[in-house]
Design goal:
The structure holds 2 protein chains of 2 kinds. Chain A is of the alpha+beta class. In chain A, 57% of the residues lie in helices and 17% in strands. Chain A has 14 helices and 12 strands. Chain A has a 6-stranded mixed β-barrel. A 4-stranded antiparallel beta sheet of chain A has the order 3-11-1-12. In chain A, a hairpin with a 2-residue loop joins strand 4 and strand 5. In chain A, helix 1 packs across helix 12 and helix 2 packs across helix 12. In chain A, 38% of the residues are buried. Chain B is of the alpha+beta class. Chain B has a domain of 72 residues. Chain B is built from 4 helices and 3 strands. Chain B has a 3-stranded antiparallel beta sheet with strand order 1-2-3, covered by helices on one side. In chain B, strand 2 and strand 3 form a beta hairpin. In chain B, helix 2 runs antiparallel to helix 3. Chain B is globular, with a radius of gyration of 14 Å. The chains are: A alpha+beta, B alpha+beta. Strand 2 of chain A pairs parallel with strand 3 of chain B, so a sheet runs across the interface.
Chain lengths: 405, 108
């Protein structure tokens, strides 16, 4: 019996041809919007979280912050130094502190000159291992740099893949960095942080020699002994540095960041964007639902005689109601399927364009099966709700009156 | 999130590096003009200045500190005052450093 209802409903939808498609338009636009935007939104969230992957809940980042126009010689006053490093190391709860310097240097290879990021590796082998481990720096080829290595560098994965010097760079290649020769000792595997993928790493000593860095640290990564104490330790570090620099609160020329808080703020913004997007899509679905209701009201009027005939040969109110509800649910369901396909297609297209523009796989589409399943259920329910009143009206038609019209 | 420091010995190199690092044109020109005044004055007084900038490298990159530094000999207090006050509109920090080096603000 139910099978007959479905066959009849499908035949009716098919016979209305273009009108059925137009009725579904609102539903599938709404579903496509929801699916594409949420899939991209989740991908965007993953991409942003990936950029924070070098930071975790038990780490702090201390860096120098400037004041815009520094007075002459100000860089020798406001930078982070070994003295600051010792103060930070001495704060209770600091388990480990690692100095990092970062510069932009001129690289020449194959007669192509470019400016690239150069990051230092810590001085102590234990700290180097910690950095490799926590930042998940894995080798694609070659060997990682150890504390005793000099004159060699490891490269981010982009050097291997994007042919930026018009010639392959491999392990053993010699690069001219700021006028000095460095041998490529290893190339890293692709990492989630694009900053790592496009950076060059060398030992702290090589970095200091190359850039003539005397006593300057760009940022200090601090690992705390207990992540529950993170805020307290951040406050203590800020307080001690302020006291040492004779600064009042609010006058800081440094910053102590808890990256997870920053990530939390980003996630909040993304969630708000998601809510707005879903709100817009809900309006589209509402319009789609009204479209289904409208089509079915027209359909009840057009099919009055058909309904009368069905009732005359024994169809009950319940049967007519079910046939109309199945039809409207099917319209919603099929609209949902088309919407899901269109939505995913759109999301993959946008991600493809974004990735080719940035030259990286920064934005990935997250296909969520619960989302697809929910979207299909939702579109079917929209169809049923939209068809409820016309179906009820159709079921209440009296056979004699229906046949007389 | 990446902060990097650049040091350049000439205006041309400083300008070219800031351009390559995608610093917004308006803010780049503002910093270039201001720091060039310090730089030229320091050179005129016989020092070896160097352009220094700290940036958050992004798209566009943001300058968080620009200054001139001195290689070798540090300026005497009176020369430091002249270097600090070289730009047409010295910054608050320039004026503070000039005062520290003995400059007295004239009262209007």
């Amino acid at each position: 019996m139910i099978k007959d209802y479905f066959i009849l409903a499908l035949r009716n939808i098919k016979s209305r041809g273009i009108r059925s498609v137009l009725t579904m338009l609102g539903v599938f636009i709404g579903i496509a919007a929801v699916v594409s935007l949420i899939s991209l939104g989740q991908g965007l969230q993953e991409a942003i979280t990936g950029q924070f992957s070098t930071l975790s809940a038990d780490r702090l980042l201390i860096q120098n912050s400037g004041t815009g126009f520094g007075p002459p010689g100000s860089t020798s006053v406001s930078k982070l130094t070994d003295h600051d490093f010792k103060i930070i190391e001495g704060v209770s709860g600091v388990d480990r502190a690692i100095k990092r310097t970062l510069r932009i240097g001129k690289i020449e290879y194959n007669k192509v000159a470019r400016f690239e990021f150069i990051g230092s590796l810590p001085e102590e082998q234990e700290d180097i291992d910690y950095m490799y481990d926590t930042f998940e720096m894995k080798l694609d080829s070659g060997k990682l740099i150890s504390a005793s290595d000099s004159g060699s560098v490891i490269l981010g994965n982009d050097f291997l893949t994007d042919n930026r010097y018009d010639k392959d760079i491999r392990v053993g290649t010699v690069l001219d960095i700021q006028g000095k020769k460095f041998r490529v000792q290893g190339i890293l595997k692709k990492m989630s942080s694009f900053q790592f993928n496009s950076a060059i790493f060398m030992s702290e000593k090589d970095m200091k020699d190359l850039f003539n860095i005397k006593d300057e640290i760009d940022f200090i990564v601090v690992q705390v002994d207990d992540k529950d104490n993170l805020d307290r330790i951040a406050k203590d570090i800020a307080e001690k540095l302020r006291r040492d620099r004779h600064l009042d609160k609010g006058e800081e020329d440094f910053s102590v960041e808890t990256p997870v808080q920053a990530l939390g703020a980003v996630n909040t913004i993304l969630n708000i964007i998601n809510i707005i997007v879903v709100g817009i899509a809900a309006i589209s679905l509402l319009v789609g639902g009204i479209g289904i209701t409208n089509t079915f009201f027209t359909s009840v009027l057009e099919r009055t005689k058909e309904i009368g005939t069905m009732k005359a040969v024994g169809a009950k109110n319940k049967d007519i109601l079910i046939i109309f509800l199945i039809e409207s649910a099917l319209l919603g369901f099929v609209g949902g399927i088309i919407g899901v396909i269109l939505g995913l297609g759109l999301a993959f297209t946008v991600a493809g364009i974004a990735n080719s523009a940035f030259g990286d796989t920064i934005l990935a589409v997250q296909v969520s099966y619960p989302l697809i399943f929910s979207a299909l259920i939702f579109s079917s329910v929209i169809g049923i709700i939209a068809g409820l009143i016309p179906a009820f009206q159709a079921s209440k038609l009296k056979p004699v009156e229906a046949l007389r019209r | 999130m990446s902060v990097c420091t650049i040091r350049e010995n000439s205006y041309e190199d400083f300008e070219s590096t800031l351009t390559r690092l995608n610093v917004d044109g308006r803010s780049r020109n503002m910093y270039l003009r201001h720091e060039r005044a310090h730089f030229e004055k320091a050179k005129e007084l016989g020092y070896t200045p160097q352009y220094v900038a700290k940036l958050i490298v992004d798209n566009p990159s943001i300058i968080i500190l620009a200054a001139v530094d001195f290689i070798g000999r540090e300026p005497t207090p009176s020369d430091m005052v002249k270097i600090c006050l070289a730009p047409r509109r010295p910054s608050k920090e320039d004026l503070e450093l000039a005062v520290k080096n003995g400059w007295k603000r004239s009262k209007r």
